[in-house]
Amino acid sequence: MSDTNPTTQSIADYLAQLLKDKKQLAAFPNVFIHVERLLDEEIAKVRSSLFQINGTRKEPLVLPEAEGQPTTLTEKVYVPVKEHPDFNFVGRILGPRGMTAKQLEQETGCKIMVRGRGSMRDKKKEELNRGKPNWEHLNDELHVLLTVEDTENRAQLKMARAVEEVKKLLVPVADGEDELKKRQLMELAIINGTYRDSSVKAVTASACDEEWRRITAVAAAETQRLLSPGMPGLATPMRSAATPLGAPLILSPRLPVPTTAASLLNGSGPQAPLLSPHDPHGLIYAPYADYANYAALAASPLLTEYPTADHSAVGHGWGVSHWLHARWPDQR
Known about the structure:
Helix content is 45%, strand content 9%. It is mainly alpha-helical. Strands 1-3-2 form a three-stranded antiparallel sheet. It has a two-stranded antiparallel ribbon with strand order 4-5. Helix 1 (8-25) packs antiparallel against helix 2 and helix 1 (8-25) crosses helix 7 (179-192). The model is unreliable at 283-289 (pLDDT under 50).
């Protein structure tokens, strides 16, 4: 289909808007008579276009010029419920919200009604109405009542077309092969606003898969380039497994406080860190050339002088903070 032709999705969206307009128009019965008629004709035209895209095309009924006086013809087409008791003929004839029957009325010019036993959805109401005036048809077998009003020559053509189309609906078809049921489900999705064109979805999914494969291929090529030896663009070669990582980085917090009395007295608590005089937070990342120098630096004056200092004041109101202030009076 070319870009100038409407897509199935666009026609379905337009049909959904028309159905919404018709539902809103129902709040004003017999007010906008011509609007209702034009809206029904547009809905029938759009449904016809939608089904033609999906492979169904019906030739319009060609009628001769009117001759004679208008007349009314009626005919019953009985539904084979006894031969196929489990088949849903009523739903197949009417369609979602009666749209299948309305479409036939537009195409044939005949009024189509389902009558007889089993024609009502509410079975209790059907039993209550059976035998009452104007409900005599409930005593008859399930059938489709066709009515047309026109001149004799035109009415006969309309009735013949309507009987032909109704009989097509009365032939049971398996679920997987029933094209009419598929279209009715499609219409139901359009009415509910949940219809999405499967062909558009398939094209979109295919494009997404292609883009994903392209991105994956590019990422794999870049990974291979980075892992290859002697790759261009790097100033230094990658480190081999035998090359040591180098000196560690030591993150030192502020002065740690011993947590127990034993660790305070025997010096087994946390050792003093290296503090940076230029770091306002008292933290330093200190790289060391080797672990021997690190051990030498760890032997700070704090660790060597504290065990030999006078600790008698500890129990008399002196704490570690007092002793530190006495040792470094200018460091607050």
